[in-house]
Every structure is written in structure tokens, then in C-alpha cells.
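Request from the bench team (R.T.):
"We need a structural guess for the complex before ordering more adenosine-5'-triphosphate. Sequence and SMILES attached. Just send the C-alpha cells back."

Command: build protein-adenosine-5'-triphosphate structure.
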Amino acid sequence: MSLSAEIGVTVGGFELDLDLEVADGELLAVLGPNGSGKTTLLRALAGLVPLDEGHIVVDGVLLDDPGAGVFVPPEQRPIGVVFQQYLLFEHLSARDNVAFGLRARGVKKGPARAEAARRLASVGLADRGDARPAELSGGQAQRVALARALANDPRLLLLDEPLAALDVATRRQVRRDLRHQLGGFGGVRIVVTHDPVDAYALADRVAIVDGGSIVQSGTVAEITAHPRSRYVAELVGTNLIEGRLDRSVLVTLDGVEVAVVADFDGPAFAIVRPQSITLARVAADTSARNTFDGVVDDVDRIGDRVRVGIAGPLHLTAEITVGALDSLGLRPGDAVSASLKATDIEIYPA
Ligand SMILES: Nc1ncnc2c1ncn2[C@@H]1O[C@H](COP(=O)(O)OP(=O)(O)OP(=O)(O)O)[C@@H](O)[C@H]1O
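Reply to R.T.: structure attached below.
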């Protein structure tokens, strides 16, 4: 393992408490909603916030351990950071921005500038060394920030929302470039993002952070198939129901009963694809085992499909065609009946 960390930090009443093990060459995406602690995690790894408890070990070297009285300052850590807004010095050229970190570590001006030029060339910016940050496109500024982070040959590379500063049109191209550039780095890479598309495009493994702790981690495929929280279910666009199974009836925490097909009892999650939910104006006489009456609380059109949010005993999202929406004439506030077949509900242990 190249990064092994137990992070215990409190900032302004917010508590971050999580463990991370990341192998050399692995790219971990840390995904979570606003305020979940992602930036605080990066700041703790980089040494910008000292740990209150725990330890950080990179390549076998202890960087922070309050119990042992060890704290290696940020500039001495084998860590490169690309911050959210890149934080390039506006008054310095691209080359001097990249050379800055090397100079801070005692490299002489000439060799630092030569190394910076080489680093810029490696991210495809050989001809932009004299440009100031204001003269660079968003994608170019990001590559300068990456070249700067890599200039000291770090063992751990941290990227905080690397695509957030870019407009939608440039994002896709820069995401592709970034994947390519990150592919050439052999150490541990951690990318923080709240965009699942970035996580899926860049990462081998994803850790979902919520409320200062890791609520789920695994490969993208594992997380997508078996979400274990409402946040993740929403990210992957499915409905999650949590409860307790008792002979093929899932009883939710609120006491709602859902008929399912299951061969075990006990705490369980159920997922229902929005496309498997049938909507009707009044409770229909169907073969579906489950029918819930509710009220439409959201109607969101995506191409020729419509996602309809239903508030009721269960909060569900159904996906229907525009034609079906028109014939039902559903609007927010309307009463609606949602049916789901027991065989369309996938069950797994909680
Ligand atoms: N220096 C600080 N002083 C007080 N509170 C802080 C400080 N730094 C972070 N917090 C609080 O800690 C929580 C986590 O913040 P953090 O920036 O780590 O979240 P995040 O997941 O990166 O969010 P975002 O996606 O919005 O950047 C927030 O509630 C924030 O207000």
C-alpha cells in the first residue's frame, strides 16, 4: 500500500473521520455532496490541516501522527496538489508557475526553469511557457497546475474538483486529456469531485463521502449495481428502499410494506429502476403486487423521457415517456398512483 491513512480532523465543528488505503498506480475518486468533507480530506493529506487523531503514511514514511508527535510540513511532503481554481500566480509566466515549487524546495533558478519547461512540454504546452495565466484557456491553466503539481516528482497526487472551473463545452475534452495525463503517473492519485461523470471517467475505485465519513466504496460497477445510500442511488438514477425483510415483505423504517421476491430475512436494501414503475391517475387494478398513492412533486423532462417524482409513503421517481405524461396529464401537486411488480425489485442485504 502506498497511501495508508486514518484521518481524524475537526474544523469549525465539522468532524472528518475516515480510513483510506490506496495502492501505487491506483486512482481513487472521492465523491460526495457539498460540505461532505472532501476538500478537508485533501487539506489534511497535504498537511494544510494537521490531524487531531490518526496517521498518514505515504510509501512507508510517516507524515502526520499526533500521537507520536510527528508532523511533516506541506512543503516537505512527497505530495502534489491541483487545487479547485488551480491557484496559479497571475503575475508569473506559466513556466515560472511550474518552477515555483522547485524553487521553494531549493532548486536553483536555471535548473528549475529548465525542469519547468520540460514539465510543460509533457502536458502539451511547450509553446506556452511565457504566457501569463490570464492568457491561458481553462484547459491550459489546468494543465499548468498539473505540471506544477508533478514538478517535484510526488508519490501522491491530489486533485480537487479538477474540472469544476471549466465550462461544459471544454469539460469533455479536458476530462479526456486529464485521463491520459494521469495515466502516465505511477504513484497514488486521488481525485475529489461531486460529479459522478468525472469519477466514472477517471477512477479505478470510488469512495463515497457523506457527513465526514466514507459511506460506501468499491469499483464504479459495484457502486452502481448496489447503492447503499439515498445519495448514491440518486447519483446513479435509481430508487433505493431500506428496510427489514420478513418472508418476502420488506418493511421500511416508516413501516411501509413492500412485496418483493427474496430468499433471506433481515436488514436489506431494495432498488427499483424508475422505468419499472407504472403510473396511473387512480389506483389501477393491475397484477403488480405493490401500489402506492402519492402526489407528484417534480416533473423533469430529459429528451423524450420524463422523470416524475412522487411524494407518498415511499418517495419514488418514475420514468415514463412524454406521450404517457401527456395522456395522464400529470402536473406537480396532482394525485397519482404508482405500481411496482415484486419481480422488478432487486434485493440485497444491508
Ligand atoms: N476552516 C474551516 N472553518 C470552519 N468550517 C470549515 C472549515 N473548513 C471546512 N469547514 C466546514 O467543514 C465542512 C466540510 O467542508 P469541505 O470543504 O471539506 O466539504 P466539501 O465536501 O469539499 O464541499 P464542496 O464540495 O462544497 O467543496 C463544511 O461544513 C465546511 O463548512
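Two things stood out. Residues 11-12, 14, 32, 34-40, 194 surround adenosine-5'-triphosphate (CB under 6 Å). The mean pLDDT is 91.
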